[in-house]
Amino acid sequence: MKAYDVRGVVPDQWDEPLAELFGAAFAQVTAADAIVVGHDMRPSSPGLSGAFARGAAALGVDVTEIGLCSTDQLYYASGALNLPGAMFTASHNPAQYNGIKLCRAGAAPVGQDTGLTEIRELVERWTRAGAPGAPEAAAVPGTTTRTDTLKDYAAHLRSLVDLTSIRPLKVVVDAGNGMGGHTVPTVFEGLPLTLVPMYFELDGTFPNHEANPLDPANLVDLQKRVREESADLGLAFDGDADRCFVVDENGDPVPPSAITALVAARELARHGGSGTIIHNLITSWTVPEVVRENGGTPVRTRVGHSFIKAEMARSGAIFGGEHSAHYYFKDFWNADTGMLAALHVLAALGGQEGPLSALVSAYDRYTGSGEINSTVADQADRIAAIKAAYGDRPDVTLDELDGLTVTSTDWWFNVRPSNTEPLLRLNAEARDEPTMTKIRDEALAIIRA
């Protein structure tokens, strides 16, 4: 179990009987009268989601099953129906994995501090030797109904971005055999777009490449196709299609921080030129700069969707973005939707005559390292070593909001421990390439010593 979802190998680490217990535990912890459940295209997903629904219904909870959907489509259903929700997906993980992303009514996050710990403890109690082996069934079980929310989801997204007057665009979309192949045709229907689909066939064995666009290797096919087609841009979705990556007309990746800055400027304009924008602490310096330039207030937060969503709700923020291409919108119940970010990019590009590379250059001002992972024996020891190396320098400041961030006038870097692996994750940025390379290599030398 991770900080904000359940994930593991099927059937070795979990299976349908266990999913049924999770359904019962979710029903008990949320105290809901009704819930909504959806799933991705993985071979194990229909069985697991069905078992979860049975577990909840056995406790008297009415279940709305929306079947095949993207994660943000499940969030839409949770928001529009005002019901707690469960999405069966392992996102970008390999085919043998599956998991559950959970939310309360209105797509409010369920994480370790907001119900996930209690759910885990209930499941553990019910499966422990010598303990009661199952939750007590209700006298009257809940009902189970099926409904399709895809068209309503698409209509809601289209209501949030004005695409009526954009110029015709040619866009290549790599769905990675994931749920983007299910959602994109309906969301894009009727727009002045020439759509070039790649890997739209739903296949949870991922026959073409992993559905993880954060890995540059998985963008190669899209980049090549954009150049071959002389397309205006390319879009790549991850397995559950809640993240969207963008490549420009040259096939060059657009950093998610640049997309965050672009969408932030557009959302601030939509909300009258003011508002709070959330960004995690490893997005580019560009993001808070653009937010301030456009009348907004930037708020820096930890990495992770449960932290971002909680801060969105607390601060009333209108938008939030992460380096990992998760984008959060107040008008989407503070939930993340890569599809809505993609529509913003299409609207921005189609609303002017220049190429995407020129458009995003204003939102991509610094040089970043990207995320570099290092396997270490002792995470705390290596972070302490970095702290010792930089702590006494008068030209730097340190903070420990999430891992350790070291900041100077012309550069910064952050080192965070992985929650699930013996890794340290380094992100560095500077005003120019030589400075970034120097500071990146200095930090890596300490991490890998």
From TrEMBL:
Its cofactor is Mg(2+). Belongs to the phosphohexose mutase family. Residues 2-126, 152-251, 261-366 form the Alpha-D-phosphohexomutase alpha/beta/alpha domain. One of its GO terms (molecular function) is metal ion binding. This is Phosphomannomutase/phosphoglucomutase. Keywords: Isomerase, Magnesium, Metal-binding, Phosphoprotein. One of its GO terms (biological process) is carbohydrate metabolic process. The lineage of its organism: Bacteria, Bacillati, Actinomycetota, Actinomycetes, Kitasatosporales. Residues 371-443 form the Alpha-D-phosphohexomutase C-terminal domain. Transmembrane segments: none annotated.
